[in-house]
Amino acid sequence: MPSPAARWKDARAASWDRLPSAARPLAWLILSLVVLFIPFFDDVWMRMFFLVALYVTLGIGLNVVVGLAGLLDLGFVAFFALGAYLVAIFDSPVSPAVNGTVNYWVLLPAAVGVGALFGVLLGLPVLPLRGDYLAIVTLGFGEIVRILLLNMDNITRGSSGLYELEKPAVAGYRVDAVSEFYVMIVIAAFVAWFATARLRDSRVGRAWEAIREDEDVAAAMGINTVKYKLMAFATGASIGALGGAINAPFIDFVAPQSFTLQVSINVLALVIIGGMGSTQGVIAGALILVGVPEVLQFEETANLLEKLGWLRDGMNTAIDGLNGLSPMNLAKLPPADEWGEKLALYRFIVFGALLVAIMIVRPTGLFPSRRREMEFAQTSDAELPAGGTV
Amino acid sequence: MASSTLRTAGLGMQFQGLTALADIDLAVPAGQIHGVIGPNGAGKTTLFNCVTGFYRPTTGELWLDDQRIDGLAPHQVSGLGVSRTFQNIRLFSTMTSIENVLVGYHLQAGGRTTAGRVRRPTGNRLRDGLGELATAPRSVAASLAEIAGSVFRTPSVRRAEAEAVARARELLATLGLAGRENVVARNLPYGDQRRLEIARALATSPGVLLLDEPTAGMNPQESLSMVGLIRRVRDELGTTIVLIEHQMRVVMGVCEYITVLDYGRKIAEGTAAEVQRDTRVIEAYLGTRAVSGGGHGAA
Ligand SMILES: Nc1ncnc2c1ncn2[C@@H]1O[C@H](COP(=O)(O)OP(=O)(O)OP(=O)(O)O)[C@@H](O)[C@H]1O
Ligand SMILES: [Mg+2]
After folding, report:
1. Could you tell me the CA-to-CA distances from A215 to A76, A131, A225, B86 in Å, in that order?
2. Which of A4, A113, A157, A175 has the smallest C-beta neighbourhood within 10 Å, fewest atoms?
3. Can you give the pLDDT at residue B233?
4. Would the CB atoms of A376 and B162 count as touching at under 8 Å?
């Protein structure tokens, strides 16, 4: 077996691949250091990083369904909700259906299993559907789940929600601080990444990609498309449920209003913005889609903007000049210490502009999926021996 | 399982009033190179689609060796050893050459599960549904095992993968695609794409190989080397080959037996020489619809 680095070469290399091979371990090192040091930020920042890592996990899950198997799923939030509710129903003291609590570490794998089961249940009726039709039906599925949760108040308490969840405990120690939950979700993201990367590089991943490329031909090559599509739905759904099960004790308020279509769309958007099928893409997408709107309303951002007073003075001088030259009466810029407030208010406009800009500059996403190279021999493209062995 | 016989009996295919195939009796003995010719729209591709389970024939029967295969799903037919290429090349275009072939090795790499006989649907939906339900637990267990095996890369998964890769390389080399392993399929030159499609089909280790106009769009020289390739596949692997072809030179050069279709019906069959003399064939090609499509005449 060649080194992992050797296996990730490609003709259509994305930015990552253009890094010289020596720089790649360095990039990993920097990334790990960043991830490790994040717990030393204050809680406001930690909350943002938790959210980003949560969405990375969800993105990795959805990527299996959309990026690999090519099944456009707009109901992904259903599985996220399922994982959260499974934990909440069994671990909340206000839960009307269940008395007492169940150990969180039993519920977590259970959520993964139940997620997979519901992935199959959603998959079965939509199997014959393709493209847009699939998107509409899965969207409906997501809404059905939300409305069910809203109305089954003898189990879910409807919109009043479930709260005061039993915190997960590790050897008698309760996971409580934001940074501790952050560590949990980062581990989950890593596990999800590892599992899906392994799957993608296997016979299963090839079957998924073949189905994405041409379903009929995949079947003609002996692939049981029904089975593999269901496997894709189940894998994605179980990762979604995993995210939900970790998020539940963290937000500590599980109610249907957190599981709207918006969540499905956000996850899909970050997968697309990042570049379908690639994990760096999902990370970048989550940072931009989830991180940026948060950061735009942070105090630090406002403070930073205040330092731009000189820019305001300059601009206002220019506006004065313009107003003097013509009958136009341009308004002056507000004081810089109000900029942060204004930005927080209008952050979604800034955010929207950013998304449009990204899609114009990089229509295939920030890190389009590298064409995996099935290079199992040590030789390079140009000098492959005929019928070489592994 | 290098060689199988293929038989159709009274095969018919209708599309809302349009009869694409009617009453086709065909018998292809093991190891034969069998030509299917006919003017455009004669129903040749439809025949392939019926045999491979893409279409469910409206009448008649399909037999592979001693097993009835009409009504089976495409992946089941493929699992029993019928493989095909497509008239308009249909590769997995963003995947590399070797990945395309590895998809063809899908069943081998996973320990062929559909070997032997496959239950044909009875037509009774309830009974078929229950039958499927009965196999569901085993199917779920197999899927879980496969996912676990891939995630943890167990020694057996590793071994199967390494073997599939080695065989895929060999197959690519056999078809003259050595050195092209890691080229994305859509970036391959046209002739290579045609050959890659054949490599992918051969990877399923078929007993019957259906080739839909493998020389379409090729110059005479390329066509000639394709003829050599087809013959080599049959001679070395013993595979039964059914070949749809418009270029008469190719048909006459390589086919041991020929079936001629016109308007969905079999109008003649026999050796190249016999078919060439048949007045109905000459009429179909040169008659009222003279020089239709790529027909180079029965010259
Ligand atoms: N899915 C379908 N729905 C409706 N009609 C179809 C379908 N598939 C094929 N046909 C019709 O069946 C007839 C036979 O088509 P077929 O593709 O089998 O011809 P062919 O012999 O392969 O021709 P060519 O030499 O042009 O490839 C045509 O009239 C075609 O329009
Ligand atoms: Mg045709």
Report:
1. 22, 12, 7, 14
2. A4
3. 93
4. yes
